[in-house]
């Protein structure tokens, strides 16, 4: 109000004629209404300024209190780790962290991680744990996953997908829809599968994919038991075929498509891959797009998703941090439990 009054006084002092003029009742009412409006505006401005001053500490406190598991939509392009970093940076920026007083006040760690890596060329559901929810990510590894995969017959690549170098080409013109449907049963149930060389599996502490990119000689890992719950052909338009796959942990869609090509006396690689479901989280219902990566939207998603988790693994609601003096620091932790390309836990 003081600022508004000052503005009125300053404006009045510029008038050349300061002789008082009698006011009518209407003018008086209008003046009173204007003064009331100015007073209300000043009060709103003061309140807004106050809210702006407390919003960042409040958001930081809310961010620190988040615990649980939710899902985000990973687009094609970034790796799962890169996407998680982007999410983390958005949340920290919204909470105003790091602040100039970062090193002067008590710090708390924001833990955030994902349970189940998607290739950079793939898109779909990426399950994320935050706070104590990172402890639940291990359960995501053994849960089922569902994919829509489009394969291309007639071409094999070193990565087993379209991002790699073509290593072999074979005819496919005699392959029919019935041929593909006829062999799918061989890849259903409890089967043995050889994982691809370009993968998150490790040798002497280093990823096989890293060693391959260096040009080092890498021996294929032995076949291991995996589970395919369901497998069906959705579309066949040579040379492309689309599969709907539901599988357990440690399963490689790229190996499946490659093995199908070999079984058909040809070869094949993955052209498109979308994870439509991981555990109880589906792409359509639960995966947050990037424009929903806000503290409030994630808090709401955590609340909604808590009912999806088994009672024995669901987190109890934690009390929010009581002091605004607690600020965020982020530590990078990579857990060593790596079961495969789609089964990596990373915590930041």
From TrEMBL:
Belongs to the pseudouridine synthase TruB family. Pfam families: TruB_N. This is Pseudouridylate synthase TRUB1. InterPro entries: PsdUridine_synth_cat_dom_sf (IPR020103), PsdUridine_synth_N (IPR002501), tRNA_psdUridine_synth_TruB (IPR014780). One of its GO terms (biological process) is positive regulation of pre-miRNA processing. It is an enzyme of class 5 (isomerase). NCBIfam families: TruB. It is found in: Cytoplasm, Cytosol; Nucleus. Residues 104-253 form the Pseudouridine synthase II N-terminal domain. The lineage of its organism: Eukaryota, Metazoa, Chordata, Craniata, Vertebrata. One of its GO terms (cellular component) is cytosol. Its EC number is 5.4.99.25. It comes from Monodon monoceros.
